[in-house]
């Protein structure tokens, strides 16, 4: 039986990630001014090209909001139900989803981030399943596949696999840009679910033991830091504790660069990181996975891009996390945007979880 899928793309999703804007809502012009390159279309093509031979009837939006992506993916037969304005807006996403509902589609697939997920949910609520191809900056909602390949698998099996109630999160981007995470539950969507293919929602761990573990990790990292080596310190409260141990003020939700106990750059974007790596070839990258979701790369730290990772060297990637976070994070994922680079990371990573203590954690690469 032919499956019917409504597909739409937010063309500017994730535009602010690599340039350090921590989100794109209301900041498209600034992202472009900083040299941001749109990548949401490429992410969608990665997923949809795997479905070009499947028995799926595609309904979509005209131009850059869907039709162009399907053509690039090798899907030359689709039905355009909605023509968006130029530039596209949140109202177009909602209107397109309503036309999909009227057409009786089995599934709504969107490519974007948390903002797009909210707009889709506003239109369809729990009437039909939805699924996100991840292309935003943060993606704290649990309605996304873990990467484009996993999205293709979920779309292919939708209708034959269970759906689960998954959180749609409302993240205050202005607070996020100022270094404060303010998120609330927006609603529960119906999402096709396969373990290890569908991402979980972000969890925050704040127990007293967790705080002691962060201190232990910070003490160990401060002890092993090498002179004349730059340290690219990723986002999160665990990595922030490392900065505090060095008597430096951290950018909680951004990327800082330190060397010899001094800050070389605060809240750095991809361009700044590449320039510093040209000047200082000895480098380490320190990141912490998102709690429960398990993403080491590709969620909230797109400044640490594939070019940055290759220039620094994957052998210089250091992952830190508390035992409590690791206990609630069964698997790690990487979704840098470069599948070949992701595979080079291998099937496991060593994670520093205390003072001179580490755990080996499995990395899953859904293909």
Major beta sheet summary: 7 strands, mixed
Low-confidence segments: none
End-to-end Cα distance, whole Å, is: 25 Å
Overall morphology: elongated
What's the short story on this structure?
This protein is α/β, with parallel strands linked by helices. The protein has 13 helices and 16 strands. The mean pLDDT is 89.
Task: Tell me what you see in this structure.
It holds the Pfam family NAD_kinase_C. Keywords: Kinase, Transferase. With about 375 residues, this protein is an alpha/beta fold. The chain has 2 domains: about 5-190, Probable inorganic polyphosphate/atp-NAD kinase, domain 1 (Rossmann fold, 3-Layer(aba) Sandwich); about 210-360. Helix content is about 30%, strand content about 25%. The chain is built from 13 helices and 16 strands. It has a 7-stranded mixed beta sheet with strand order 10-9-8-11-13-15-16, sandwiched between helices. The chain has a 5-stranded parallel beta sheet with strand order 3-2-1-4-5, sandwiched between helices. β9 and β10 form a beta hairpin. α2 crosses α6, α4 (about 90-105) crosses α5 (about 115-125) and α8 (about 210-225) crosses α9. The protein starts with a strand and ends in a 5-residue tail after the last strand. The mean pLDDT is about 90.
What structural keywords apply?
single chain; 367 residues; alpha/beta; Rossmann fold; elongated; Put_ATP-NAD_kin; kinase activity; NADK; transferase
